Amino acid sequence: MTTAAPPAGEGRVLDTLARSEADRRARRRWRTAWVWAARAIVLGLFVGLWQWTVDIGAIDPFFFSQPSAIVGFLVEEVRDGSIWPHVLVTLRETLAGFAIGAGTGVAAGIVRMQFPFVADVSNPFLTILNVLPRVALAPMFIIWFGVGEGSKVALAVSLVFFILMLNTEAGIRSLDRELVLTMRALGATDRQLFWKVLLPGAVPAIFGGLRLGVVYALLAVVVGEMISAHMGLGQRIAFHAASFRAEGVLGTILVLAVIGLGLNLTVVRVEQVLLRWRGDAP
Question: How much of the chain exceeds pLDDT 90, in percent?
């Protein structure tokens, strides 16, 4: 039994599409390479200019430190292992606050959209709580929950909760109402409508909130640690600042920047995997 070959015209079309896709991927790889090269050049110029201005005495390293001193500080911290317990504490507090705040925020957003009466009753109270400067209230969180990890987790939850609640509600509101009405006309139950339409449609907005929420969770934890804590990178920043060690402050901030970048990239990667069906995930 033989398989008929596709017509010549169809074969040429397929070859053209394959070449077009290959060219598109090649251009994307080249663009990515150029982007990373440009980033490396910008970073190198910034660090080099910073070090040069210190070497010629244009800026005082006591106030601004210098790249070589910061690198030396980080090498020493990593070599003796003194930084790792603080990294673990900050990560644990951030992830706990992020997970609790994200879970409760998404649940609250869904409940409020499913039950308008609940939303109407809770709107003024949640609005008041949302406009409160939670970072400014960090000392009160420490009084309420103690100087341990609980106060930092609670502070992170208070920020992440509202971000995820509002993003979840925005995602559900942005759904195509015609799609919802069509599913209703086809006899979809409330449970089917929720799992097949509402939740999948709100996922992109939820992930937008997750990307923002993980950064704010880290911010809240560090602020709480700087005010009062036994351990954590925020506590190390406060300690080095009190000791007038600019390289210690900037080196610890650099570690926090790496942690924040890693957390953000993790959320983006999970989003890419879960939203692959859309075809336009970031």
Answer: 43
Distances (CA, A) of 164 to 2, 110, 122, 167, 215: 58, 10, 16, 5, 13
Q: If you search the block for the tokens 């209703």, which residue do you land on?
A: 184
Question: Which CATH code, of 1.10.150.20, 3.40.630.30, 1.10.3720.10, 3.10.20.600, is assigned to 62-278?
Answer: 1.10.3720.10
- Inter-residue contact 156 to 101 (CB < 8 Å): yes
Kindly state the DSSP code that residue 50 receives in the 8-state scheme.
Answer: H
Domain ranges for the chain: 8-59, 62-278
Q: How confident is the model at residue 11 (pLDDT cuts 50, 70, 90)?
A: low
pLDDT tens digits, one per residue of 232-241: 999 999 999 9
pTM flag (> 0.85) = no
Statement: residue 182 has pLDDT above 70: yes
Give the separation between CA 217 and CA 92, rounded to whole angstroms: 11
CA distance 197 to 188: 10
The pLDDT value given to residue 148: 86
Looking at residue 4, the DSSP 8-state letter turns out to be P
CB 202 within 8 A of CB 172: yes
